[in-house]
UniProtKB/TrEMBL annotation:
InterPro entries: DUF4261. This is DUF4261 domain-containing protein. Residues 212-286 form the DUF4261 domain. It holds the Pfam family DUF4261. It comes from Pedobacter ginsenosidimutans.
Amino acid sequence: MGLFDIFKKKNIVEENEQIAENDPLENFPELLTTKLLFLDKPNFDSNQILTEVKKHFENVEHSFSENSFIFSFSDHPIQFADATIPAQCTIMIPDQGKSEVELPDAAFQQNWHWAEANQTAKNCTYEILITDLMSRTLPYKERLNVFMDFLVAVIKVTQPNAIYSAPGQKILNPTDIINIWDTDKIQTLYVLCNVRLYNAGTDTGHKELLMDTVGLHTIGLPDFQIRFSAADENEVANLLWTYAYYAYEFGDIIVDGNTLEGLKTGSKWKCEKQFSLVGPERIVVNVTSD
């Protein structure tokens, strides 16, 4: 079984004892952003992209300029106090003559899922930015589905060599994204979310590890973190993926004092919301074993 095998899941979530409607610790939705990375400057055909996008969205309006392409989806309206506007996604093209890829250091640190991720991204010389706009107030599941449908459509046309997910701080194989989204949408969080591993030991040499999820915070849900010393990293990673999908399925309902099932059947691990120990700063559910 490979490290952080997200395909192995088990039903480990305990029913929460209570639900609080006004928990003061919460994350607020952020812009969803990915970068398409290319070894060479791609042949960019906006009409081909529009044709592919229309396979996912029945009603699409578009506005094209030299360096930006905006797609609006009227079937996904967002209501403001004085207006209703459609959800939008954009493609941002670098300035003419620019040939450069800019990624943060974090992009190269937690790519357990793809052995060639770092080298592939470092070899790329051109990037295209994909974001959503005016969409943060959509229900988070609807919002993520709109963004992913759009992203996959653009990937199919432009055929990048790698994808950088800003929410998940990871580099992904474009073929994997297409295959998973087209055939196995139970892995809805594959692009958005990541599970990370850190050494949290003290100067005295005591072994302690920290694992967390990152990415859920961008759609307004809590991430999760666990500190441990003796458990198997793969098992903890699978546990965190299960927690992540639980939060995605049921929403931000976990409050202090609730329990989640741990690594052993019947175990109850306590939950407490707090600020994350590792950046980006966000609210996480800190899970401690019994």
